[in-house]
Amino acid sequence: METINAHAAFLCNYEVMQILQQLKDTTQKKHKREGSLATVTYETVHYLQDTECKNQSEQSIQKFLEAMKKFKLTKMEKLMMVNTPPRTELEIQLIVQESEERLSEEDVRSIIGIVNEIFPAIVT
Fold it and tell me: Which residues form the RNA polymerase Rpb4/RPC9 core domain (predicted)?
């Protein structure tokens, strides 16, 4: 992925986790003076490590976004699918506005198949 300007883009959970891990590493090396920042960083990284982004990579996200181009989804819909990959038709209906008009049943099945192939479900 290209370099992300955190102030000018929507970030997926994977990107947030990467930025916070880098921030955590540099903060720990420099000073312990920013206790609340360290706490927020730690708690957020800890939370994100229990989500789908834990098993994602830049390559898998790029592959997913490339596969989604044919469905004419909005940037926000694709972002939500990266953050919370839909595994059922209901989840797609909740993510994609007017999904019944915009996606055929075959499209929905195809999206679920792509999600399951690129972002395998986390087994807990």
Answer: 1-122
